[in-house]
Design brief:
By secondary structure, the protein is an alpha/beta fold. The protein contains 11 helices and 10 strands. Bound molecules: adenosine-5'-diphosphate (ADP).
Length: 277
């Protein structure tokens, strides 16, 4: 079932600039989606449309059957789609981790007992249980971002949107956050929509959506997308180095047949070739 539908959705900023241009997309419950595109392609605008932070200037965004323009249902839309943003420091509001996680749920009037259960669940989902009494300001970037995710999880969303949420993190922090999203997707069936400019992050997605000038210009599995190197380059996106190397080898006659999308796969394919001698 489609949990999110964009129907001829466009969005223009007040200066008239059209950042999203007649978008038609359906996202099913339980999908892991990566949205990529060069700077200014409309990714962030798209993320903000998904939970009604902004509404389309034309067309509609339908979340679990509700039009985000329907002001009476905005709270339901925000409960269904939780967004985690780029800068972890801007998202933490309380000084102690567990209070921070509870904050959003308290704001929407969830009862105390229920909040305790949700905080417990959210802490464990992001592997931060042992940090519950710690001061938020003393956490690493990756830990802060995991607390921000936990705060969104305490609202029990069905869809988690990450808007460049790993871009300010070091590689370890990035890996921690990605691992949490994979676990939520696989174990809890949560729909994940990650907006990213890291090509190596998109290999975990079921489906990749490429935006350019606010339009969907490519769509497919990571393998399908990476196999179209020239098309990607037209949109100023580069394929991972391992993919490029495998394609170069293939072009020069080496029998590498698989679409390679990471260095582990490249190493494996090369080992196989060497064994065949
Ligand atoms: P991305 O996330 O892919 O970098 P954005 O969605 O942030 O793209 O921006 C898409 C386009 O909309 C860009 O050209 C940007 O300059 C423009 N834009 C973003 N925010 C505003 C704004 N508040 N007012 C006017 N134009 C904006």
């Amino acid at each position: 079932m489609a949990i999110i539908k964009a129907e001829n959705a466009s969005f223009s900023y007040s200066d008239g600039f059209k950042a999203i241009d007649n978008l038609n997309i359906e996202i099913s419950s339980g999908e892991y989606i990566a949205v990529i595109g060069k700077n200014g392609s409309g990714k962030s605008t798209f993320a903000r449309l998904l939970n009604g932070l902004i509404t389309p200037t034309n067309g509609s965004i339908i979340v679990d059957g509700i039009d985000t323009k329907d002001k009476k249902s905005l709270q339901r839309v925000r409960k269904t789609v939780g967004v985690v943003f780029q800068n972890p420091d801007n998202q933490l509001v309380a000084s102690i981790v567990e209070d921070d996680i509870a904050f959003g749920a308290e704001n929407i009037g969830v009862k105390r007992e229920e909040i305790e259960k949700r905080v417990e669940f959210a802490l464990s989902a992001v592997n931060m249980t042992e940090f519950r009494k710690r001061s938020s300001s003393r956490l690493s970037g990756g830990q802060k971002q995991r607390v921000a995710i936990a705060g969104v999880l305490a609202l029990m969303p069905e869809v988690l949107v990450l808007d460049e949420s790993t871009s300010m993190l070091d590689p370890k922090g990035r890996e921690e956050v990605i691992a949490v999203t994979e676990k939520l997707n696989k174990e809890k069936g949560m729909t994940i929509i990650t907006v990213t400019h890291y090509m190596d992050e998109i290999i975990r997605a079921d489906r990749v959506i490429v935006l350019d000038s606010g339009k969907v210009v490519m769509q497919g599995t990571p393998k399908e997308i990476f196999s179209k190197r020239e098309e990607l380059e037209r949109f100023n996106l580069a394929v991972p180095l391992s993919t490029k190397m495998a394609q170069k080898l293939y072009d020069s006659g080496v029998a590498i047949t698989e679409n390679i999308i990471n260095k582990e796969q490249l190493a494996e394919a090369l080992c196989k070739l060497m064994q065949r001698g």
